[in-house]
Every structure is written in structure tokens, then in C-alpha cells.
Amino acid sequence: MDLADAQAQVDTFIRRNGGYWDRFQVLAHLTEELGEVASALQQQAGLRPHKATPDLAGEVGDLLFTLIVFANLNRIDLDATLAATLAKLERRDPAS
Questions:
Q1: Are the C-beta atoms of residues 37 and 56 closer than 8 Å to each other?
Q2: What spatial distance separates the first Cα and last Cα of the chain, rounded to whole Å?
Q3: Are 33 and 63 within 8 A, CB to CB?
Q4: What are the pLDDT digits (tens) for 8-40?
Q5: 69 CB contacts (<8 Å, ≥6 apart)?
Q6: What is the pLDDT of residue 96?
Q7: For the chain, which terminus, N or C, has the lower number of CB atoms within 10 Å?
Q8: With helix as H, strand as E and coil as C, how does 48-87 read?
Q9: Whether pTM exceeds 0.85
Q10: How confident is the model at residue 47, as a pLDDT?
């Protein structure tokens, strides 16, 4: 699946399940999901106690889903955005 497909699938899911939230609510949810990724990583590293096995991949999936929701709400084409960012990084930090 490419990013355009992911954006379309997320859009379909969101519209089928009540529609998009306000962009600031999504931003808050994005922050929450990033915190859950950090928590799972800390648990895996033994830096934080945990009751169950941390699901880092699942938390990253939740974060990615929420980031796609945020991008959709703000009409950001993630394929184009990632390509532009990679090109910028290549110009700034070319391989030796």
C-alpha cells in the first residue's frame, strides 16, 4: 500500500464512522498516540514497568493512522510531502 492508498482508506473509514473531528482534537490525539509509542518503547527497554507485553508496532500503527487523519483534514498529500522532504534532506545531507 502506498501513502495515497492509505489516505484514501483512512478517509473511507473515517467518513463511514461519523466523520472527521476538529483538527485540534486530532492534533491532541496525535500527541497522545506519540506518548503511547514512547511508553511502549520505554517498556521494551525495561525503563518502565509493564503489566503486559508492550505492542510497539501496534502503537506506531495507531500513530500512523492518526497522522494520516491529520494530513487528510489539512489536505496534505503525504506522497508528495515525503518526496519533497527526502529531496530536501538529500540536498542538505548528500551521501559521501
A1: yes
A2: 31
A3: yes
A4: 999 999 999 999 999 999 999 999 999 999 999
A5: 10, 14, 20, 21, 26, 29
A6: 60
A7: C
A8: CCCCCCCCHHHHHHHHHHHHHHHHHHCCCCHHHHHHHHHH
A9: yes
A10: 87
User: Residue 77 and residue 79: Cα distance in Å, rounded?
Assistant: 6
**C-alpha grid cell, residue 95:** 551521501
Residue carrying the nine cell digits 518502565: 48
Query: Who's near 71: CB < 8 A, 6+ residues apart?
Result: 7, 77, 78, 81
Question: Which residues, 6+ apart, have CB-to-CB distance to 72 below 8 Å?
Answer: 7, 10, 11, 14, 20
Show the cell assigned to 14: 473515517
pLDDT in tens, 77-91: 999 999 999 999 999
